[in-house]
Design goal:
The protein has about 725 residues and is of the alpha/beta class. It has 26 helices and 24 strands. The chain is about 40% helix and about 20% strand. A hairpin with a 3-residue loop joins strand 18 and strand 19.
Amino acid sequence: MTELVFLWHMHQPYYKDCLRNKYLMPWVRLHALKGYLDLPSAMKKYGVKGVVNVVPSLIEQLKDYAENNVSDAWLEHTLLDPSEMKEEQKAFVIKNFFMLNWDRLVRTSPRYNELLNKRLRYEKKLDWVETAKLFSDDEILDLQILFNLKWFGFTAREQFEKLRELDRKDCGFTKSDKEDLLEIQRKVLRSIIPLYRRLAGEGVIEISFTPFYHPIFPLVYDTDIAKRSTSQPLPAKFSYPEDAKWHLEEGKRYSEETWGRTLNGMWPAEGSVSPEIIEAAAEAGVKWLATDETILMKSLGRNDKSQVLYTPYLLKNGKNQDVTIFFRDKYLSDLLGFSFSQMKPDEAADIFVNYVKNAVANFPSNGSEPVVSVIMDGENAWESYPDNGEHFLKELFTRLSSDNGIKTTTYSEITDRGSDKFPVINSLWSGSWINGNYEIWIGNEEDNAAWGYLKRVRDFYAKYSQNHVVEPQIHSEVMRCLYRAEGSDWFWWYGPQFSTENDWLFDRLFRRHLRRVYNLLGMNYPTFLDIPISSGSAANLIVEPTSEIDPVISGRNNGYYEWAGAGRFENSQKAGGAMYNSIKLVDKILYGFNRDNLFFRIELTNPMHFYEHKKYVIKGFMMDHKNIDFALPMVRIDKTGFMIHSSNETGKIADIVGAGEAAFDEVMEFTVFSTKIGLKPGEKVKIYFKILSNEGIELERIPGNGSIEVTIPDEAALFKLWDV
């Protein structure tokens, strides 16, 4: 029997601007309508057990919405009557009320799709206020309702007929419709915490926690711990072990008070661990914690996870307070988070179940059942699934609840049986679930600047509180501001790796948490806190070509000059959402052209021979007036011709034999004969690539969002690019 444990991580940073007593972002409210409600409800419905990890900073905000009738900027703009709105307010709605998955949730509604297309027609020609003048009051009202409506998941739709009625209506909404919709929102928000309490009492879910404001525990403890797993330049040392311990201890106490039960387990923020966290966790009464398989492999100095991954381990802290640690299966967790949404639900569910069975087939028996851990974001993935993941979860959970070879369980059920047979880890690696280090949160210029801001304010208050008498209530609130600024999310969005159109809001909120320290003390804050840290826009990931190229297609590194002048896409930098796909195969793409050809060179993160036995396929896609695609196996090959498929919106047009040549060895190089496939000078084509498993699962899309745009050169362009 294989034991399968799901851990669904529910988290949002602290979005409240305490200077203004207002939430700057709506994501706690909106995710409560979907992921926070759907997942545990589906587990109960289909008889599946698991762990739900709820971060205390999320609990605080859920309680605020449920009990104190708080608002946020998006809710305020929903409540406004369009006939009384200023153009700036309408502009906010037009700009911000499309922040959800367009393909799954906007394009599927005729009215929402119509409003999106109208916005797209003008957004690059007019500013937002000018665009707002072109939207009628009825269109604004429809947009207010559709945005809030589409955030509801399948459980709320099942519970409330009014939501299904509004889905059918789709347009021409009334003020009464909006009032009904918002009342349902309030009911759902008030139901989340009681639902979790009930399901925990019934044994459907185990609730675990994360240190209070989701800090990277080792970095708050001492940023120099990062030196153990990175060579990146680090900021001046920030070291407040007492803060790190407060997050852990108070996070556990507050969570237990909320749920009315003792909590045994913890998912450290971002799976970030180091030896320092073990003693603190044990002393706080934590019985188990979880992190990523990368930490296990680096701790053991192993490469083959199949022989070591699927069992719990013991961590000893020298005080007879052992902590059990579990490690997530990265590949399976990422398939669920990123790839299965693009597949048919039944096929994806079959792949999941078969993977679990095959993964443990060769696992050495140590007298206990093998344990497969699937740990992932419990809220963001479902927006990418059809029907918010309803049919996929039904297919998956139904299979698991009826399979005699797999038992879904919780970590406490495993640890309660005793840990005598668990192997021991004597030296725990210091790192996170991303690449086994902390480089997402420290080491680049913006991250280090943010740590510098935090250090200056934290050091200031440490000295101030030694030399001044601070009232207990003021001291408590000052420390809350500092604890909130120690959360990981601000550092996630700083730097080039991740970006969102709300980067500036995260930057502002981080600095406002620090400003309020001085406000509470009756002092003027230092001017550096007015200086934004974020560059304000996503890094430009694409460098355009500067000249014609004519490389030899060999699949080998033949020197710099062959590709000098080529364009470049760096896949090490990922713009996009809060989720991270750790299945990262491509490091960079070089691309260019001459009069008759397009050239591509793809450099992988590992040598080609590392992938050959996996039977992966790389597919290239080009889009202009027609769509062109080609597929090549990821194996070492000498230069050989390949076929290109051409299609348009009505389907297949033609197969063009001998339309390109490829050679794969140290790198993947190929050329496409642009004249042969009918690309004309002056035409623009958009290009992207996908790497697929032999089962057809999308492992990586490059670029992750958007495409590389190339203009087929005409004489004027060639003259302009000519390198003397």
